[in-house]
Each structure stands twice: as C-alpha cells, then as structure tokens.
Amino acid sequence: VANEGGKHWTVNEVRALIRIWSDKNIQQQLEGTVRNKRIFEQVAARLQKFGIDRDWKQCRTKYKNLKHEYKSVKSAQDSGSTSKSMKFFNELDAILGHCTMEQANKSDNGESERPPEWTESKPEKDCIG
User: Fold this and answer.
1) What residue ranges do the domains of the chain occupy?
2) Which residues contact 48 (CB under 8 A, 6 or more apart)?
3) Where does the record place the Myb/SANT-like DNA-binding domain (predicted)?
4) Cα–Cα distance between 65 and 71 in angstroms, integer?
C-alpha cells in the first residue's frame, strides 16, 4: 500500500491531478485555505474515478511539490535563467501563472484580510484562463 512517501506518481497520475486542480471550483477552494484536508479528500475521490488510488495526503503532498517546483522554475525564468525547467510547467502556468502576481499584490496591501462579503465579487478578474 502506498503511504506518505509512497510510490512515484506516473505521468498519467500527475496529468489527472493537474486536470482536477485546473477545475476553477477546486482552485477557488484551495485559494487562501490552510486546513484543506477536505478539499484533497475530494481530489482523491475524483482521482479514484480515473482508477488512480491515492489518498488525500499523497494528493496534497504532490500538489505542494508541483506548486513549489513551478514557483522556483517561474522565478528562475523571471530572472532571465532558462536552465531550469519542469515537465508540467505549461499546464501549471495555465493554472497558477495568471494569478500569482494578483495574489501577491493582494497580500501586500491587506486586501485579503477583509472577509469575502466586504469585497465586491469580480469573478476571474485578472485570471484569464
């Protein structure tokens, strides 16, 4: 049985995870949440439908690792380096690339501190997907 360290993710498993992650609903749930076990349980359940047997911890760990790797490749590219690359960069860039500056700006000016009902909802404002 695959556990926390577990067996390596296959290309198809990672693609399926990214496909689920690219769902706008999942992205919105993950945005700004720290306690996200419930979300990753949903992700794991959806992977099961593809015949992929991963638990929520494995999904969360893979998600975090992909996100971290993406950010390090992205910042290397932004600083002019082309030596860093990763397998699923374009797929992750479609999910993360359009919103990263928007989210960084929000956390700088305290806008994200306000409860959601205080800010008028502008869906997909700067995130053209």
Assistant:
1) 11-97
2) none
3) 7-95
4) 10
pLDDT in tens, the chain (129 residues): 344 456 799 999 999 999 999 999 999 999 878 889 999 999 999 999 999 999 999 999 999 999 999 999 999 988 988 888 899 999 999 999 865 444 444 444 344 444 444 333 334 344 433
**Amino acid, res. 12:** N
| Residue that the structure tokens 């556990």 belong to | 3
Rounded Cα–Cα distance for residues 96 and 83 (Å): 20
* DSSP string for residues in 90-121: HHHIIIIITTHHHHHHHHHTTGGGS-GGGSPP
Alpha-carbon distance values, 8 to 2, 5, 17, 33, 47 (Å)? 9, 8, 13, 26, 15
Contact 18, 95 (CB under 8 A): yes
Residue 3 DSSP symbol = -
